[in-house]
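hiii so um. not sure if this is the right channel but i have a protein structure encoded as tokens and i wanna go backwards to a sequence. like what aa goes where. can anyone help
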């Protein structure tokens, strides 16, 4: 059976699927390279405003392929990272639709997204210490920011795994979607819709500003960071058209 990354367009949303279900979507070097390229292709497509990453059921991603991992040194590890780091670096808004187990590097892939939705069978499993392996790929940095220091240490140092309900309670996922993988994907597409409908330049600029302001200690610096892109959007034809449309609707209601 062919192992591949499947890239589709659902309107203005790119859906990227790790499709290697016979070994639970674990990442080989080839799949990581394909994943990074699929993300790059989506970024270069001006009709794409958001990105959803998922895995063919039953798993989301079982981590790095163990054969690949066993023979890897620094260069090989960085090559494995490249797939999920492409998601983490993306200027597009990103959603991980996690329908099954996200293990090790697969948990990194989920963490790399801006937002995570879980299916009822989702499970978030660190597994690094179980393998006698130090975490990598920025796992500790991403996890502590996603769930806080105590929960991150429970998962990383004590091997605690989270099911869908516990992940939602910990803030690791936005919510759990009942149903099968198709229902989960539809929920991800619905979540992505406002970004898909908004002007692409504004969407990308807003995500860029959020990355900048997330580490700022002073409100005034955030105001200064946002003012230039806000003025640019204020002077855009998109804003003028949408403002006129909204004013017309308000006038009609009154």
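sure thing!! here u go:
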């Amino acid at each position: 059976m062919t192992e591949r990354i499947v890239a589709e367009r659902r309107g203005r949303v790119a859906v990227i699927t790790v499709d290697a279900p016979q070994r639970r979507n674990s990442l080989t070097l080839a799949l990581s390279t394909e994943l990074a390229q699929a993300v790059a292709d989506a970024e270069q497509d001006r009709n794409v405003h958001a990105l959803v990453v998922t895995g063919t059921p039953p798993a989301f991603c079982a981590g790095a392929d163990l054969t690949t991992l066993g023979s890897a040194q620094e260069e090989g590890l960085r090559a494995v990272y490249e797939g999920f780091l492409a998601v983490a670096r993306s200027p597009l808004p990103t959603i991980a639709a996690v329908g099954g187990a996200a293990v090790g590097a697969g948990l990194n892939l989920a963490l790399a997204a801006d937002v995570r939705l879980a299916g009822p069978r989702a499970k978030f499993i660190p597994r690094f210490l179980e393998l006698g392996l130090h975490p990598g790929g920025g796992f500790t940095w991403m996890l502590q920011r996603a769930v806080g220091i105590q929960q991150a240490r429970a998962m990383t140092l004590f091997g605690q795994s989270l099911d869908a309900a516990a992940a939602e309670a910990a803030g690791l996922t936005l919510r759990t979607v009942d149903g099968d993988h198709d229902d989960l994907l539809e929920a991800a597409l619905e979540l992505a819709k406002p970004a898909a409908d908004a002007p692409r330049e504004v969407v990308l600029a807003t995500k860029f500003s959020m990355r900048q302001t997330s580490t700022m200690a002073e409100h005034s610096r955030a105001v200064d960071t946002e003012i230039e892109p806000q003025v640019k959007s204020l002077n855009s034809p998109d804003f003028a058209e949408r403002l006129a449309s909204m004013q017309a609707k308000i006038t009609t209601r009154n």
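oh and The chain is about 55% helix and 15% strand.
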